[in-house]
Amino acid sequence: MPYGHAVPFVGREGELLRLRSLLQEVKSGFPRHVLVEGPGGIGKSSLVRHFLLEHRNELRLLRASGDDNESELSFGMLAQLIATPTSFSAWEGSHDPVSAGLQLLDLIGSLQDNGPVVMVVDDVQWADVPSLQALTFALRRLRADRVLTIVIARDLSHPRLPSGLRRLLTDDQTARVTVTGLGVADMQTLAQAFGAGTLHLGAAARLCHHTRGNPLHARELLEQVSKEILADLSHPLPVPRTYTRLVLGRLAACAPATRDMVAAASVLGLSAPLHLVAQLSGSQKPLAALDEAVEAGLLVEHPRRGRLSVAFPHPLTHAAIYQNTGIAVRADLHERAAELTDNELDRLRHRLRAATRSDGRLSADLTFFAREEARAGRWSSAATQFVNAASVAPSDEERARRTAEAITALVYAGRVGEATDLARGLPLSCPPDIRCFALGVLEHVRGNASEAVRLLTEAWQRCDVAAHPVRATRISEQLAILWSMAGRGAEGVRWAERAIGRAAEVPSLDFIRLIHLTALGCDGRAGEALAMVRVLPTAGSASTDELDQLLGRAMLRMWTDDLAGAVEDAGAALSRSEGRSVPYRVSANCVLGEAEFRAGRWDDAAAHTAVGASLAEDSDQLWLAGIACGLAALVPGARGLFPEADAYVTASAALATNATSITYVAYAHAWIATARGDAAMVVNALAPVLDLPYRDTCDGPGIAPWQDLFADACSRLGEYGRARAVLDAFEERAADQERHSSLSLIARARGNLLAAQGGFDEAEICFETGLRHDALVDLPFDQARLNLDYGIFLRRRGTRGAAADRLEAAHQVLERLQAVPYLTRCERELAACGRVIRSSSMDPRSGLTPQEHAIARLVATGLSNQQVARELMLSVKTIEYHLGHVFTKLGLRSRTALAARLAAQEP
């Protein structure tokens, strides 16, 4: 049998049956993910290939394979999935895994029109990180898609795998197919295929045991050993040569020109254009050499993007040849390859592979390239190049500097696990300020705020600011974030201004201006901060720094009751967030979602806060995850969707490690308990907020309004003194800053407190005061709660007509918001007033889920299904699935009818 013959496919019936079963589920409209795992050479790829061959006429296939030599090429794996040069340009322009993930969702959606889609990613551990992050984002958003995703991996512990993808692949919902060694019967079949005849049971069992069922190793023996020896149990089997020796033996039998070409190909990667391989090897007759290499099983033809390329038939083949090419020859080939390429990334990669010692010039070039990547928002690429620069740095100190920059970039790229490993590997001779900075950044992103402040403060004290301005600025940036999050606005302002003062010297200060503005707001200087950014360009023409300020202005406007301005600014900032760091993207979604929540746009708010929470979780941004999850719990909590709300609160509870996250998580917990009517739980939930030592964030009017929830709960429990103390302190600050939203909440809660104590006349004055403040802001739910509580108060005083008027006003808003617990209470009170309310068909009891309602509302505005999918970050098929349910439940047949129904119900 010639060397080029592949290992025949035998056995694996159980594994094939599992894949076929999963495909049937997919055909029914249920997306499934499957992890195919096992050691190298065991037959994982062969199994998947055979499965695809069985179903080749009924599937749309997207296929890609990781390549260690292309792991630094951002979105290289996604480019393989789409497989056409015209489409590739779209991926090349995308620097943001979220946007790339949305593009992948679009592609998957369009392919499903012609049948189920199978998406295969082989050797996932070698794929580039941005592609894997985009893949993770897309897979988490498949809901009603006919998509079977097959991920082939040797080891899920590889540090390059994003933790979000690792969690997805190990989730209970992901099927796992573990490929093990072949059994005895399968070994008999394999022997027949290789011309060894029919092995008797004992001989097959011996071969199976000897090779541990590995098909590649069995092939070695079947090719080396005669049929007689294989069948003769008295004759010991020889120890099989390693696969490497087998490959090298085949290579040695080739002509020198072929050997040179195969070695050159190995330097260029798992695959490369034939003309480039020929140039590098100096081959005058590349086709003849290729024929011999193919016959020997060393290379295969690999047409790619319209040109003839060559590839290695198996990664183990490539590794055997590359690793056994002499070091000097390999270095020389890499040097020549660097001269042949026009691509700067490829040139640097080859120069790095050619380096056999430290190289200051190469380190400087890699550092320059990394900083340019950071400026463009390509954080994953920047991190890799900083690591590479460190590997060839001429001194321990220089290596430590580049490593510190790499850690920051890895954090921004969402690769926190790799950043942690890198920090642990800092050399013992690392300067103390660098070590403290690197460890401080990690403690920060992992949510250990107090330890992060200690380390970064020490880093600042030890840093020579004049000699190392970049490091000093990065330290200032981190401390600004930490102090702001810790509830120390003045400290946050001071450190932010230090960082901004040196911003021109740093590749990218991703959102320091946002931190500066919000720190001013927490310090009670919101008016001053707003004056600084009163005039900003539109999002379309804004610079990176101005977009940063736009998002900061959104938060300030939200805190100062300008909700329309806050929604507009945050929406504009989010629309231009492609290419920004993961923390920025999380922040943009959360700010927009919170502003929409306060403005009564709850369906939009639910969508954006859910995306923020998902992004924070996927990228291990623990310092933001508590806030994001807390905000994501607000809409389902107020709507009585308690399992969903509780899941967010449970996820965020362990992440509340700084004053801001503690406040938002406690607020969300108390918010849900309020909707449940559990006063004791409200008080317990807010206990951590009362114990915070630094209170600029938690006590700031307009920031996280927990005080009225606490006072209401205390009033219900008869703890009137505690309620009054919190309200008095909060009212003083709110009055000083003229926060009408906060003063309205205080008036409502104080009215309830006074009513509980029997002070009815004073209570009525408080409720009327609340109405006057409410008239100056547009906070639908807060207004509805005020009308609800005032109506209840009036009914119990016997003023049923005035009470019913208040309750009806509350009911109209609560029904629109689908705030079921409050709506139920309102209807009960209205019934007691003798009023009967006819709920519209779009109230919570009409049967629409929150997601269906969000989709229906967006469709009614005239958006296409694809546009709705983009808005909600879901697949088109998911939108189509839910929209079909909307039409069925409402008895409608057209988008026009849906728009008319919703328009008729708008307040």
TrEMBL record:
* Keyword 4Fe-4S annotated: no
Coiled coil regions in record: 331-358
Report keywords, A-Z: ATP-binding, Coiled coil, Nucleotide-binding
Q: Name one GO biological process term.
A: regulation of DNA-templated transcription
Which InterPro entries does the annotation name?
A: AAA_16 (IPR041664), P-loop_NTPase (IPR027417), Sig_transdc_resp-reg_C-effctor (IPR016032), TPR-like_helical_dom_sf (IPR011990), Tscrpt_reg_LuxR_C (IPR000792), WH-like_DNA-bd_sf (IPR036388)
GO cellular component, alphabetical, reads: cytoplasm
Task: Give the domain of life.
Answer: Bacteria
Which Pfam family, giving just one, matches this sequence?
AAA_16
Looking at the record, the residues that make up the HTH luxR-type domain are 841-906
Q: Which GO terms describe its molecular function?
A: adenylate cyclase activity; ATP binding; DNA binding
Q: What is this protein called?
A: LuxR family transcriptional regulator
What is the source species? Nonomuraea glycinis
